[in-house]
């Protein structure tokens, strides 16, 4: 279900009243001023942005973090030194999500994309998520093994970029690992583990994920 803040139809006054009750006004104003953009932070959310990290985007960009739905915990955004978060427009990290950017990492998220409850985006190097994507409950996106993997005593590369195209839908519990690539309009089924590269309009499923259909599409 697409979040209320992304709706394209008139909402009753009660809906706006409920949203305002969940906003941390102090944090929203502080981070909007500090980041020179528009930030709407939900109560209970934890935002830790190092002084050398930055959030950027076109004029009018907006980050909605820790809002909507009824999950108890707020969202977590942690940005290590020199990391960069690029927003293409309005982006939403829902309640219960965790977004982590490591040292010198770059995460870009396109306009209209939302990351749902319980999802995690762990960016140690580079993660690209396109516009108008639906990242479902419990999804995991990681561009790193985190720990070193040795093969015959030789350490293997820990990082590889993750690229997710425009208008992609990642089903609940899906995992996207380092080096994976999904073209525009791709759909990853529930609990799929994506490790390979797939062209536009591909439906993938399984462990590891394999293409099960081509020329697919989806809508909110």
Report on this model:
The chain is mainly β and 220 residues long. The chain has one domain (10-213): Hexapeptide repeat proteins (UDP N-Acetylglucosamine Acyltransferase, domain 1, 3 Solenoid), CATH 2.160.10.10. The chain is built from two helices and 25 strands. It has helices at 13-22, 25-35, and strands at residues 38-41, 46-49, 54-56, 62-67, 76-79, 84-87, 90-94, 98-101, 106-109, 114-115, 120-123, 126-129, 134-135, 140-142, 150-151, 154-155, 162-164, 169-170, 175-176, 181-182, 187-188, 193-194, 197-198, 203-205, 210-213. It has a nine-stranded mixed sheet. Strands 2-5-8-11-14-19-22 form a seven-stranded parallel sheet, with no helix packed on it. A seven-stranded parallel sheet has the order 3-6-9-12-17-20-23, with no helix packed on it. It starts with 12 loop residues before the first helix and ends in a 7-residue tail after the last strand. The relative contact order is 0.10.
């Amino acid at each position: 279900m697409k979040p209320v803040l992304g709706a394209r139809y008139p909402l009753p006054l009660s809906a706006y009243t409920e949203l305002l009750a969940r906003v941390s006004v102090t944090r929203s104003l502080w981070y909007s001023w500090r980041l020179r953009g528009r930030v709407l932070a939900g109560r209970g959310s934890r935002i830790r942005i190092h002084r050398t990290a930055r959030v950027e985007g076109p004029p009018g960009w907006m980050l909605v973090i820790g809002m909507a739905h009824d999950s108890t915990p707020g969202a977590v955004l942690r940005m290590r030194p020199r990391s960069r978060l690029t927003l293409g427009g309005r982006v939403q990290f829902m309640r219960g999500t965790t977004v982590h950017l490591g040292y010198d990492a770059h995460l870009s998220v396109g306009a209209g994309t939302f990351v749902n409850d319980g999802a995690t985006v762990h960016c140690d190097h580079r993660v690209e998520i396109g516009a108008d994507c639906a990242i479902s409950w419990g999804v995991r996106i990681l561009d790193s093994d985190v720990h070193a993997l040795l093969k015959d005593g030789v350490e293997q590369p820990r990082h590889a970029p993750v690229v997710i195209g425009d208008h992609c839908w990642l089903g609940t519990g899906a995992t996207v690992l380092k080096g994976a690539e999904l073209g525009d309009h791709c759909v990853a089924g529930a609990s799929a583990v994506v490790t390979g590269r797939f062209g536009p309009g591909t439906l993938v499923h399984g462990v590891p994920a394999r293409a099960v259909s081509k020329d697919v599409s989806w809508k909110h």
